[in-house]
Amino acid sequence: MRASTAPITVAFDNLPPGTYAVGAYHDENGNDHLDTNFLGLPVEGYALSNGVRAVMSKPTFQQAAFTVGNGDKPVALHIRY
What we know:
The chain is about 5% helix and about 15% strand.
């Protein structure tokens, strides 16, 4: 998908109830992966569920996790640089 400043909606239909985490990144240089620095921290824009950010280490699944039940569970990601 091309980069856009407009909001993008993605729907995951029929997910079984459980614990999930969501992430997205902006592949600024188009090399098909999230670039990191020598510490392994992202140097391109990214977002994780719960607004988790890498500070001194990579975030854990538990930090970004949320529970999905039988109904809709909207999650908003805001890519930051």
